[in-house]
Amino acid sequence: MLTNILVIIAGYFIGAIPFGYIAGKMRGIDIRKEGSGNIGSTNVARVLGKKTGRIVQVLDIVKGIAPVLIAYIIFPDQNEMWVRVAAGCAVIAGHNWTIFLGFKGGKGVNTSLGVALALMPVPALLCFAIWAVVVKIWKYISLGSIIASAAFPFFVFFLEW
What we know:
By secondary structure, the protein is mainly α. The chain folds into two domains: 2-119, no CATH class; 121-161, no CATH class. It has helices spanning 2-15, 19-26, 41-48, 50-74, 81-96, 109-119, 121-138, 141-160. It is flat.
């Protein structure tokens, strides 16, 4: 039981690493005071450039995958699925309310994608494809995120059960 708790706590602290903020600081910029003020990859791309935004996006996705994968390695038994899900929730909470920035973090979209990829890769990839198409057509990242998030439970229902 102690191991379960430690994995979940580790998930929070992995999620709390503010990659967007770090990317800004590496260039002498406090990303929270520029653009939308958000530390996520969209604001980073707008302020620091698309390449840096993509790097932050990938890092935020990977940090969503990492705690779930760690939980899977430690607890490969399907009966411990709750630990993987809890670690996923913890990493998203860490990203959204990072202890390192006064509990003000990002929106958690990329980190949530990472968690979804680790837990249910096929529905997550389909949602990512929807996101990409919506963003390409309408040029609104937030619209793509909302539509993809709304589609996820349907894909899970029809493809995973």
